[in-house]
Amino acid sequence: MKPNKTTNQIIIPPQPAAVDADEVDLSNLQRQIIHSTADIGKAKVKSAKETMNAMNPDVEVKTYRMFVDASNIRELIR
Questions:
Q1: Which residues of 59-73 are buried (b: 16+ CB within 10 A; e: fewer)?
Q2: Which residues is 43 bridged to in the sheet?
Q3: Of 8, 12, 17, 33, which is most buried by a Cβ count within 10 Å?
Q4: Cα angle at 24 between 20 and 30, to 5 degrees?
Q5: Around Cβ 26, how many Cβ atoms within 10 Å?
Q6: pLDDT digits over 11-60, tens only?
Q7: Residues 70 and 77 sit within 8 Å (Cβ to Cβ)
Q8: How does residue 10 score in pLDDT terms, banded at 50, 70 and 90?
Q9: What is the torsional sign of CA 75, 48, 15, 13?
Q10: What's residue 9's pLDDT?
Q11: Where are the alpha helices (DSSP H) in 1-78?
C-alpha cells in the first residue's frame, strides 16, 4: 500500500489473480519463472498461487482456471 501524498489516503492495489487453463509443462519453465520443475503437471493457477503464498502468506490470490477471451474478459477485470 502506498500513501497518496495529495490526499493522505492509502491506495490499495488490486488483488492479484492467476488466470490460465493449462498445466505446467517443462517447456514453460524458461519463460514462466513462477513455476519450477516440481510443478510440472500441476494447474498453472495452483502453482502460481502456491508460489505467491510462499513469498507472502498474507496475500490473497484469486485463481481462474480458464483461458481469457472476449466472452469472459469483462467478468475477470471487474
A1: eebebeeeeeeeeee
A2: 23
A3: 17
A4: 105
A5: 10
A6: 556 788 999 999 999 999 999 999 999 999 999 999 999 999 999 999 99
A7: no
A8: low
A9: negative
A10: 63
A11: 44-55, 73-77
Q: What is the mean pLDDT of residues 53-73?
A: 93
Give the residue-averaged pLDDT of 54-78.
91
User: What is the rounded CA–CA span in Å between residue 78 and residue 72?
Assistant: 11
Distance CA 64, CA 45 (A): 7
Q: How many CA atoms lie within 13 A of 10 on its CB side?
A: 2
Question: What distance in Å separates the CA atoms of residue 26 and residue 37, rounded to the nearest whole number?
Answer: 7
Cα-based distances in Å from 60 to 4, 11, 46, 49, 56? 23, 17, 13, 9, 9
Location of C-alpha cell 507472502 = 56
Residue given cell 497518496 in the structure block = 4
